[in-house]
Amino acid sequence: MIQDDAPGLLLPENGEDSGGFSDSQDGSLEILNAKEEDSGVRLDVYLASRLGITRSFARRLIDDGNVSLFPEKKAKPALRMGEGSTVRVVLPPPESLDLEPEEVAFGVVYEDEHIIVVDKPSGVVVHPAPGNWHGTLVHGLLYRFRDFGAFNNVLRPGIVHRLDATTSGLMVVAREQKSLESLQEQFRQRTVLKKYLALVHGKIKQPSGRIDLPIGRSSANRLKMA
């Protein structure tokens, strides 16, 4: 449901979260289903986080009438999300589907004929999306590896997983379609081991430990987890 100052409830719509872009010259349709950790998050913040777009672009989508809720309710940037909320987003078509190589700074820690492991720095968006059509990691890959293979997905060639723009870390990238499909299946089956290094604020008494509690995104600051 979506929450605001007005009374009433919005019921969830049956259907799967599309969870990504449906590349098309006519734009794309996104159906997003909010989870428990999204409860209390502003609609514009939620869209920015889920779709990898800027918050200002998310507000523009809302103001232009490209965002609708289930059941019918006027979308406003400040509306608060609730678990089970269903949001329908119509994304405009990209400026161009012909990606041009651009020099983008990132490290390469491993490469062979099948995959590339890159060290993505903070501040670099992984792939083109509304509000970020240039200067992405994908543009940099096309610039550095001119033999990058042909892929079915024109906006995210070789990309099988993402890191937030503000997050640095290693990413494995497919170099051709067969490797792409193999990696996608491994991530789908959750056979890929992921490790994260995080900064913890406060006085920690124990030198090590395990957190086995629900962790969700802060409703006040989407960059914080609590």
List the helices and strands and how they pair.
Layout: E1 2-3, E2 28-33, H1 43-51, H2 55-63, E3 67-69, E4 80-81, E5 86-91, E6 107-111, E7 115-120, H3 137-144, E8 169-174, H4 177-188
Antiparallel strand pairs: 1-4, 2-5, 3-5, 6-7, 7-8
Helix pairs in contact: 1-2
Describe the structure concisely for a colleague.
The chain has 2 domains: 2-91, RNA-binding S4 domain (Structural Genomics Hypothetical 15.5 Kd Protein In mrcA-pckA Intergenic Region, Chain A, Roll); 107-188, Pseudouridine synthase, CATH 3.30.2350. Helices cover 17% and strands 16% of the residues.
Q: Would you give an account of this structure?
A:
This protein has 226 residues and is of the alpha+beta class. It has 2 domains: 2-91, Roll (Structural Genomics Hypothetical 15.5 Kd Protein In mrcA-pckA Intergenic Region, Chain A), CATH 3.10.290; 107-188, Pseudouridine synthase (2-Layer Sandwich). The chain is built from 4 helices and 8 strands. The strands form 3 sheets. The chain has a 3-stranded antiparallel β-sheet. Helix 1 packs across helix 2 (55-63). The protein is globular, with a radius of gyration of 19 Å. It starts with a strand and ends in a 38-residue tail after the last helix. The model is unreliable at 1-25 (pLDDT under 50).
